[in-house]
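To: structure subgroup
Subject: Chain for Friday's discussion

All,

I'm putting the inputs and outputs inline so they're searchable in the archive.
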Amino acid sequence: MKLSCLTLSFQNQFRTGKMDMFKFIQQCRALNFDGIDPHMNSLGGTGKDYLKKVRRSALDSGLAIASMCVSTEFGRDAAAVPAQIEKARGAIEAGMFLGAPILRVFVGSAPSPDKTEEAFQRGADALRKCAEIGAEAGMPVALQNHSGLTSTGDDMLKFLKTVNHPNFTLLLDTGHFTGRDGPNGPKLPGHTYDHYYRSIEQVAPLTQSVRTKLYLLDDKGVEKFINYNRVFNILRGVHYNGFVSLVYEGKEDEMTAIPRGTRFLRSFVSAC
């Protein structure tokens, strides 16, 4: 396994102008990451001259582009879907130029509980279209579980079966399955950690990329709400050999929390 970092882990630094893509790359090199996961919201531009500089900066720092990320919403509003597909197309084009092996997308949520199946079908159709666009370019498209229509492992497997495209795959997010305590992520009545780890077990054999969420870290960087010993045992059990991407979503200052979280996750990656 290899360790990478999503730009959104430093979203406060980006939002306040203290960090851009080049400073992010420098920070990831200083923290000894193996790769980076640029998000379109943090990329800073899509012109070829600019992307050349980003690609060269990553190369000079010895960092691979682990994935390209874009936030899409296909479930809530049918009228918005074409624009969301075009957003994914733009991310595919930028990601291909940077050398990213995969595009991460979301499917979103239903506008109301009574329209869940309608939203699911709309999302599956849109994901298939994204997969077709990615296939033309040469980039697989991966659906990340992120609450809403992807709150359980069963939800993810249903999308995989319904989209039914060879260029479509799944991306495992350790933070957004039901049953887990703590902030963020979906909550369903009666769901416990048994449901949560079962969902991870369902998706782990099918993924080529993993998001490891960090919310509340102790002084050694150990995450409170997720048993990463168990998570990495699951990943080792399916011989996972891709990137594990750190995504920090806690309230502590990113510049102090992320170095601890990086050392914590590196201890698992190095042991694999």
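Points worth raising on Friday:
The mean pLDDT is 97.
The first strand starts at residue 2 and ends at 6.

D.
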